[in-house]
Write a structure and sequence with these properties.
Largest sheet: 5 strands, mixed
Radius of gyration: 24 Å
Strand content: 15-25%
Shape: globular
Structural class: alpha+beta
Helix content: 25-40%
Number of domains: 3
CATH class of the largest domain: Alpha Beta
Number of strands: 18
Number of helices: 16
CATH architecture of the largest domain: Alpha-Beta Complex
Distance between the termini: 49 Å
C-alpha cells in the first residue's frame, strides 16, 4: 500500500491547514462550515422525526395552494370585534413596561384617535394604569405594519381564502414619514387617520363591493415579475390595485373632490399595497399552521422589543428573543443612534417567501435599504438553502423565473447558522418621531433554537424494546 498526494483536499475550519496545503501545491476546496447552533441532540431528534418530511410537504403545499381575495373593507370594530379600550399591536405579546418608543407612540395615538384621551399625557396614564388592553394582531388572525396598532374605528382590508375559509385583515396604509405605525401621533397624524376613516375607507368599501372580490394573489404574482418584492417595494402592486378599483371609484357617486383626494393619496403612496400583501401572506401561513411534526416557520414578527416566531408543528406558541436593530440608510438628520430595534408584522412577507427572501426580483430595492444589486441576488440564492420549496406563482425573472424560496425550515436555519433576510423600515427610537430610515435585519438565532427545542420535545422517543423469544 502506498500513499499518494491527493488531487484535491476539502478543507473546513482553521485556515492554517488549507494554507499549508496550498504551500505544498495541493489544490484545496474550502468549505465554510460551522457547527450548528443550539442543542445538537434537539437537532438530531427533530431531523430524525419520521413525521417531518411529510409534515413539511403538507405545510408548504397548503401555503402554495392559498388564493387570497379582497372581499370587503370594514371598520375593525365590525370585523375584529374590537371594543372601546381594546387595541391590537404588532409582534409577540408585550407589557407597557417593555414597550419600545414607537410602540408607545402608536398606542398613545390610537387613544387620541378614538377620543379616549385628550392629550398624550392622559393617554399614557391610561396605558400605564392598565385601563386599556392590547394583544397581538396575530392573535386575531390580523397583521399590522411597524407598530401595527389597530383601534376600533380604523378601517381594515378583509381578505379570504375561499378553499379553506380562512380570513385575515390589515389596516389601510397611511404612507411614510410621520405616521402612526412609526410611532408618531401629532395633529397631522390624527387628522389623516380621521380622513381615512371618514372618506377613504367608505370609498374603498364601495369600490370593492362594486368590483367584486379582487384576486390579490394574482396581483402579487404579477408585481414580483415587475420589480416589486412585496415588503419595501410595492409600486407596481399599488398601481395595479388602483387600476382594478378606479372605474368603481369614478362611478361611485361620492363627491368628486373626495374621489380625487383618495386616488391622489393611493397613487402617491407606493407602500399602499403592502397592507394587502401582508394579509395575503398571513393566509398562506394560516394554511400551513397546525401540522404535527412540521418544522416550517409560520410567523415571524417583532414588536420593537422582541422578535418572535411560530412554527407549524408548535401552533400559536411564541419563541422570542431580543430584536436586532436594522442597518441601512437614514433620512436626513437621522443616524444609527436614532433607530429603534426591529418592529412590525410585515416580516410575514418574508415568512411567505417575499420581501428580503426575494430581493433578487427587486434590485432597485438596494437604493432604499442599502447594499448592492449583487448583494440582492446573492441573498435570494442563499435563502433557497433555508426553505422547503419554491413558489412557482412568485417567479423571479432574473433567476430564470425560479419560484420564490418558500417555507423556512427551523432545522435548516439552525444547521447552517444562516438567518432569513428581512428588509424593513426603521422607526425612531423616541415616541412621536416617525420613520428615520430603512435597512436590512435578521432575526435573532435564539428564536429558532427555542423552536427547535420545543419541536424536539414533541418527538415521540423511539421504541427501544426488543421482542422477546418466541
Amino acid at each position: 500500500m502506498s500513499l499518494e498526494t491527493p488531487s484535491a483536499v476539502v478543507t473546513a475550519g482553521a485556515a492554517v491547514f488549507a494554507e499549508s496545503l496550498v504551500g505544498q501545491a495541493v489544490e484545496t476546496v474550502p468549505v465554510a462550515w460551522r457547527p450548528p447552533a443550539g442543542d445538537p441532540a434537539a437537532l438530531a431528534a427533530v431531523m430524525g422525526d419520521r413525521r417531518r418530511p411529510g409534515a413539511n410537504a403538507r405545510a408548504v403545499e397548503a401555503m402554495l395552494a392559498t388564493r387570497a381575495r379582497l372581499v370587503d373593507v370594514l371598520p375593525a370594530a365590525q370585523v375584529l370585534h374590537l371594543e372601546r379600550g381594546e387595541l391590537l399591536h404588532a409582534g409577540p405579546p408585550v407589557t407597557w413596561e417593555r414597550t419600545s418608543g414607537p410602540m408607545r407612540g402608536a398606542l398613545v395615538g390610537a387613544l387620541l384617535l378614538e377620543g379616549s384621551a385628550d392629550s398624550p399625557e392622559a393617554a399614557e396614564r391610561l396605558l400605564r394604569a392598565g385601563a386599556v388592553s392590547w394583544e397581538p394582531c396575530h392573535a386575531r388572525g390580523a397583521v399590522g405594519p411597524m407598530a401595527g396598532v389597530v383601534s376600533p374605528s380604523m378601517w381594515m382590508f378583509c381578505l379570504r381564502d375561499e378553499a379553506t375559509g380562512h380570513e385575515s385583515w390589515c389596516s389601510l396604509n397611511e404612507g411614510l414619514g410621520k405616521v402612526l405605525r412609526y410611532g408618531a401621533y401629532g395633529k397631522e397624524v390624527i387628522d389623516r387617520l380621521q380622513w381615512m376613516g371618514a372618506v377613504l375607507g367608505p370609498l374603498l368599501q364601495h369600490a370593492v363591493r362594486a368590483t367584486g372580490p379582487v384576486d390579490v394573489t394574482a396581483l402579487v404574482a404579477q408585481m414580483v415579475q415587475m420589480g416589486d418584492e412585496g415588503h419595501n417595494r410595492n409600486r407596481a402592486g399599488t398601481l395595479m390595485f388602483l387600476r382594478e378599483l378606479l372605474p368603481a371609484l369614478i362611478g361611485s357617486g361620492f363627491p368628486t373632490a373626495d374621489v380625487s383626494d383618495a386616488v391622489r393619496f393611493v397613487s402617491g403612496n407606493d407602500h399602499f399595497f403592502l397592507n394587502l400583501v401582508m394579509p395575503t401572506c398571513k393566509l398562506m401561513s394560516l394554511a400551513a399552521a397546525g401540522v404535527p411534526g412540521s418544522s416550517v416557520v409560520t410567523v415571524m414578527s417583532r414588536n420593537g422589543t422582541d422578535f418572535g416566531i411560530q412554527t407549524s408543528g408548535t401552533g400559536e406558541r411564541w419563541f422570542t428573543a431580543p430584536a436586532n436593530t436594522p442597518e441601512g440608510l437614514f433620512l436626513g438628520g437621522y443616524g444609527p443612534e436614532d433607530a429603534n430595534p426591529d418592529i412590525g408584522d410585515s416580516a410575514i412577507t418574508e415568512t411567505a417567501g417575499l420581501g428580503g427572501m426575494s430581493m433578487a426580483t427587486a434590485p432597485a430595492i438596494v437604493r432604499l435599504v442599502g447594499g448592492s444589486v449583487a448583494d440582492a441576488l446573492a441573498t435570494t440564492q442563499r435563502m433557497y438553502d433555508l426553505t422547503v420549496t419554491e413558489n412557482p406563482a412568485f417567479a423571479i425573472p432574473v433567476l430564470e423565473f425560479r419560484g420564490a424560496p418558500t417555507g423556512i425550515d427551523v432545522t435548516s436555519v439552525v444547521r447552517s447558522r444562516v438567518l432569513p433576510q428581512i428588509n424593513t423600515g426603521m422607526a425612531g427610537r423616541v415616541a412621536g418621531t416617525g420613520q428615520v430610515g430603512a435597512g436590512l435585519v435578521t432575526p435573532p438565532m435564539g428564536c429558532f433554537t427555542q423552536a427547535l427545542d420545543a419541536l424536539a420535545a414533541s418527538v415521540a422517543p423511539p421504541d427501544m424494546r426488543r421482542p422477546g423469544p418466541g
